[in-house]
Amino acid sequence: MTPTTNPFSTRHTRPGSIVPLDGRGSPLDIPLLVGRLRRAGGVGAIVGPHGSGKSTLLLRLADEIEAGGTRVERVRMRGWWDVSRAVLAFRNAGRSGIVCIDGWERLAGPVRRLVRLLAWTAGRGLVVTMHRRDSMPELATCCTSPGLLAAIVDRLPGRSDWYGTLIGAQDVRAAFDRRRGDIREALYDLYDVFERRARGSVPRRS
Amino acid sequence: MSDLQNRAGLNRDGQERVGASPQVDVQFDRPARRYQPGDRLAVRYRIDDCDGDRIHAIEHSVVWYTEGKGEEDLGVHFFQRVTDRSLRSSRVVAGDFAASLPRSPLSYEGLIVKVRWCVRVRVFFDGSRDFVSEHVFEMGDVPPARLPPPEA
Q1: Could you tell me the pLDDT band of residue B135, with boundaries at 50, 70 and 90?
Q2: Which residue of B has its CA nearest to A189?
Q3: For residue A156, which of A108, A150, A171, B35 sits 20 to 30 Å off, Cα-Cα?
Q4: Residue in A73, A75, A141, A144 with CA at minimum distance from that of residue A106
Q5: Which of A9, A16, A17 lies at the smallest CB-CB distance from B69?
Q6: B80 and B97 Cβ atoms separated by less than 8 Å
Q7: Nearest CA to CA, how far is B51 from chain A (Å)?
Q8: Do residues B38 and B95 make contact, with C-beta atoms less than 8 angstroms apart?
């Protein structure tokens, strides 16, 4: 059977569609991280390189915090123009709410300091994603491995319809190596491989 | 045409689903699942194997979405929520709904992006568990994109 959905498309691989996994591909203990955040006074950073699962983890963490009854505001920073959205999020979060900012480094250094000051004075929590450590308490470090990519691929929909025929373990490993561990880019590569093989332009794996 | 049960693999709390899942069988009024803009689409569905869980609501929707790399887009064309008391006592739940299709967007099988139409049945159980079942159909006759021939 030829699947008509590409399992590597964004809708199946974006943050929120896949479970946060650790660097070896095992599910992360989210309640444990929430406890760590609480002990750090509601401030923490998720650190890791591009495509290592920071946004996926942040989203899942935000959901867990919200399920515990704390108001959470989520902001995805795409550029400096989103600063106003971040400021608004602090207002909307309410007393002892938490603001989650994805893409902390897209804010300039002085703005980051200002936002932290705002969080501290307003009594709001702040959880961010960043590529390199700074002075914020580190909540989790995201890293990747071939095992992590394989574990993600194992969880994609309709696996029995395409794994071993359209996509195999070697393709997954090759994508990981080609993209030097960037899981997001590796999944995009696998999207293309899947598309070509499903349309028959490249021989399927035997 | 594909049917995707439990598409996200996660429940509403973002945790991996465990245990048995219901089986949602959807039948379109046109077995080939091919419609034209403005056509009326009608479906009947049946939900089995609820594993003793009580259903408290079912949502019916007809949606289009993009599938591909990068940003996604989605439009809800039809939506209906059913919270009938009889749902709670039934072991097998069946229902039907119908909607008139709009003029666009048409289904498109591209390489980088695809436009898909689907019927979605979402089942809400007591507690926080829910289950989504998607059933793709085609609207229009746009031919699929073709790959360029391989370079010599």
Answers
A1: very high
A2: B69
A3: B35
A4: A75
A5: A9
A6: yes
A7: 22
A8: no
Contacts with A17 from chain B: Cβ below 8 Å: 8-10
Report the relative pairing of strands B130-139 and B3-5 from DSSP bridges: antiparallel
pTM of this prediction?
0.83
CA distances from A99 to A108, A113, A119 (A): 18, 15, 8
Instruction: Give CA–CA dist A121/A114, Å, rounded.
Output: 10
What's at A167, amino acid-wise? I
B83 lies in some domain: yes
Is the CB of B9 less than 8 angstroms away from the CB of A64?
A: no
Q: Is B68's CB within 8 Å of A16's CB?
A: no
Structural domain count of chain B: 1
| Contact yes or no for B13 and A9 at CB 8 A | no
Write out chain A residues lying below 8 Å of B147, CB-based: 196, 199, 201
CA distance A28 to B9: 16
* Partner-chain contact A4 B2, CB within 8 Å: yes
pLDDT given for residue B120 in this prediction: 95
Contacts of B14 in chain A (CB under 8 A): 16, 19, 59-60, 63-64
The CATH architecture annotation of domain A30-141 reads 3-Layer(aba) Sandwich (3.40)
pLDDT at B8 over 50: no
